Amino acid sequence: MITLEALCHKLGTPYKGDPSLTLTHACGFESIGPGGLAFVSNPKALAALPTPGGVFRDQGKNLHQVDPGLPCAIIVPPGTEAEGRHLIFSPDPLDTHVRATLILHPGPASSGKIHPLAFVDPTAEIGKNVTLDPGVVIYPRVKIGQGSVLRANVVVMEDSVLGEDCLLYPNVTVREGCLLGNQVILHSGVVIGADGYGYYQRDGHNHKIPQVGRVVLEDQVEVGANSCIDRARFDQTRLGRNTKLDNLVHIAHNVEVGEESLITAQSGIAGSTKTGSHLMMGGQSGIRDNLKIGSQVTLLARTLVTSKTGDQETLAGMPGRPYHKWRHNEALLGQLDSFLNRLKNMEAFLAGLGFFKKPPT
Predict the structure, then answer these.
(1) 192 vs 59, which has greater pLDDT?
(2) Dihedral sign for Cα atoms in the order 331, 332, 337, 338
(3) Using CA atoms, how far apart are residues 298 and 316, in angstroms rounded to an integer?
């Protein structure tokens, strides 16, 4: 809960409306209500709101009309005119709305308390103001940076290191020797550092290949619920700074993902593939093992990449191919029935001229 004036002071943005208006939550424009804060990129959308009435002061100076039944605020582009509305002006309404949302809905703050039902090995190093909820287990020689929050039943195994201000939700497991940077967020069910899928066969029997490497998550990495990032065979599996994974994503052993990447649900990258920065993977897409993927590569949903790529490519289909080629081929597939009928008619015509006895079946 915060006043319009105080919020705009924190955001560093100009506003028009009642400085004392109380905002309680961020919301979408379609669901805006009392105390809500929404945004629009197109000012024409404001016409959908009911006609306002009443009065307010423009930053304490001028009187304007307001809607007493809808005490809310809207972030709009500069120069937007909407008589009687409480407006916040920003050249990037989405970004400002996101920053405002973090103010109105701050994440879990560290209480600095270690619950009696948490177990911490005596050799572990716990930083200042760290929260450990019930059921947390901290193995030997673990290091946890200040301000981090570990929710119920999180397990951090021996020799792992967590940076400052990390947030691990319930039932996260960080296996031995893994390294997490600062402000890393792991959602429930995430497993960091499970063994990579390594086996070989001798005399008809499967034999396990030891996985003795680690996982490194750089600063501000976020991993969605029930995703798995496997430890390397010898060296490290790495996610670059500010990379974000959706739920149900699998990153195999020895993979290196560049910074600022976005990988959505049910996608996977097979072992030892290296990607550049700003990779974007649509849902259920995949990348084969041992490939080199360029920077700023985008994969549409259900794309499977089977060969190396350059930079700034957009791929689609299975196997993945440039988007414009995939789209052209997909359009042709829709005309196969027409092509087949035309071919049959041509064969019948040629058969009538005696080129062959009867049309092939």
Answers:
(1) 192
(2) positive
(3) 9
- What's the length of the chain? 361
Cα 157 to the center of its chain, rounded Å: 26
| Residue type (1 letter), 324 | H
Determine the distance from the C-alpha atom of residue 24 to the mean position of all C-alpha atoms in its chain, rounded to a whole number: 26
Concatenating the DSSP letter of every residue in 193-211 gives EEPP--EEEETTEEEEPP-
Q: Residue ranges of the alpha helices (H) in 65-162?
A: 93-104
pLDDT tens profile 245-254? 999 999 999 9
Q: Indicate whether 206 pLDDT > 90.
A: yes
Those residues whose C-beta lies under 8 Å from the C-beta of residue 216, and which sit 6 or more positions away, are: 178, 179, 181, 236, 237, 238, 239
- Residues 207, 253, 278, 328: which is the catalytic one? 253
Does 207 score more than 60 pLDDT?
yes
- For the question of residue 253 being annotated catalytic, the response is yes
Give the pair of three-digit tokens for residue 214.
Answer: 């680690």
Which residue would you say has higher pLDDT here, 334 or 115?
Answer: 115
Task: Say whether the peptide bond before residue 319 is cis (omega within 30 degrees of 0).
Answer: yes
Taking a C-beta distance cutoff of 8 angstroms, is the pair 197, 230 a contact?
yes
What is the set of domains in the chain, with CATH numbers? 2-104 (3.40.1390.10), 119-324 (2.160.10.10), 332-361 (no CATH)
Q: Which two tokens stand for residue 99?
A: 């920053």
**Residue 211: count of CB within 10 angstroms of its CB:** 21
Distance, CA of 117 to CA of 318 (rounded, Å): 50
- As a whole number of angstroms, the distance between CA 241 and CA 361 comes to 60
Using DSSP's 3-state secondary structure scheme, residue 169 falls into coil
In sequence order, what are the residues at sequence separation of 6 or more whose Cβ sits closer than 8 angstroms to the Cβ of residue 31? none
Q: Which residue has the higher pLDDT, 215 or 67?
A: 215
Nearest Cα neighbor of 233 from 249, 252, 207 is 252
CA gap 53, 45 in Å, rounded: 19
Query: Average pLDDT for residues 342-351, to the nearest whole number?
Result: 86
Q: What is the mean pLDDT of the chain?
A: 91
Decide if pLDDT at 56 tops 50: no
